[in-house]
Amino acid sequence: MRAALLDAFDGDVRIVEVPTPRPGPGEVLVDVAACGVGLTLERARTGALGGSTPRVVGHEIGGVIADLGSGVTGWAVGDRVTTSFYLLCGRCTWCAGGRETLCANWGGFVGVHVDGGLAEQVVLPAHGLVAVPGDVSLAAAAIAADAIATPYHALTARAPVRAGSTVAVIGAGGGVGVHTVGMARALGARVVGIEAEPGKAERLLELGCDLVTGPEDATDLPWPIDVCVDTVASRDTLAAAVGMLGRAGTVVVVGFQAGSAFELDPRPLVLDEVVITGSRYATRAEIAAALDLVAHGKVPPVIGARFPLAEVAQAYRAMQDNAVFGRIVVEVDPA
Ligand SMILES: [Zn+2]
């Protein structure tokens, strides 16, 4: 089969012919229809997420089960599925307690620590799968598994948004950003999009932002911010996020980068009871909930560009250039 292989960290992915993998006990083989390409893949490429090479990359997967390994129950050949990005034990207190992304025996990431889905086929652990509703395309399902499920977790579990809340999204035009805007709208919030690329403003307004501004103007907003989701998480954006909060507001950091430590004045923590927290990916139940919101038209999947598997290098370049509004999807067309 054809697969996008990362030979070594900091190298470029390239399409190669590799043996078709076989599902072991508890695993399934999936025919991949689509796989999302976001900035996480760039961090995987540089080695920032750990793992090892050579590696077939890609984790935002939509596909159809083609074969079952021994001992797999509850799934059948032909089922439409997506998967958790995380390799979970399924047995620890965190997994059992509904906070599985904090798994005590976490095994790493799909596409980083085991081969991923930018390929014609992928082997996945059956217990990481999530069923895709019939009215959701497999390309939409692929991005729902991360770019839509991540804001669902952030805005329902980490900083619950109520109708009438005001939510600011830093990096609103990125793959997670646009879906955080959509999720906040679906939850009934007023939304401020903060985006450094002025060319993305119009699309963000169409998506339902009440206001779009550049980061330099984010200190003077017309509303106090109840929840600020920082998808950029640089030193500057983190400081700005805290600064724009209203009383009892919450900053939710989604993702992080090295060297972004920032100084914090503790006064607003006490005097305004502001909260600064983070949000780590999403559970399988939250992926299912995100798929449900897509199925019911509540959160539109924003696919900004589509590439065939043969053009995975171009897909990476578009992602690295931050040139695409929303998520990039690679569509696999079996030869
Ligand atoms: Zn666990």
TrEMBL record:
<dbReference type="InterPro" id="IPR002328">
    <property type="entry name" value="ADH_Zn_CS"/>
</dbReference>
<dbReference type="GO" id="GO:0008270">
    <property type="term" value="F:zinc ion binding"/>
</dbReference>
<dbReference type="InterPro" id="IPR020843">
    <property type="entry name" value="ER"/>
</dbReference>
<dbReference type="InterPro" id="IPR036291">
    <property type="entry name" value="NAD(P)-bd_dom_sf"/>
</dbReference>
<keyword id="KW-0862">Zinc</keyword>
<dbReference type="InterPro" id="IPR011032">
    <property type="entry name" value="GroES-like_sf"/>
</dbReference>
<dbReference type="GO" id="GO:0004022">
    <property type="term" value="F:alcohol dehydrogenase (NAD+) activity"/>
</dbReference>
<keyword id="KW-0560">Oxidoreductase</keyword>
<dbReference type="Pfam" id="PF00107">
    <property type="entry name" value="ADH_zinc_N"/>
</dbReference>
<protein>
    <recommendedName>
        <fullName>alcohol dehydrogenase</fullName>
        <ecNumber>1.1.1.1</ecNumber>
    </recommendedName>
</protein>
<keyword id="KW-0479">Metal-binding</keyword>
<dbReference type="InterPro" id="IPR013149">
    <property type="entry name" value="ADH-like_C"/>
</dbReference>
<comment type="similarity">
    <text>Belongs to the zinc-containing alcohol dehydrogenase family.</text>
</comment>
<dbReference type="GO" id="GO:0005737">
    <property type="term" value="C:cytoplasm"/>
</dbReference>
<feature type="domain" description="Enoyl reductase (ER)">
    <location>
        <begin position="11"/>
        <end position="330"/>
    </location>
</feature>
<dbReference type="Pfam" id="PF08240">
    <property type="entry name" value="ADH_N"/>
</dbReference>
<dbReference type="InterPro" id="IPR013154">
    <property type="entry name" value="ADH-like_N"/>
</dbReference>
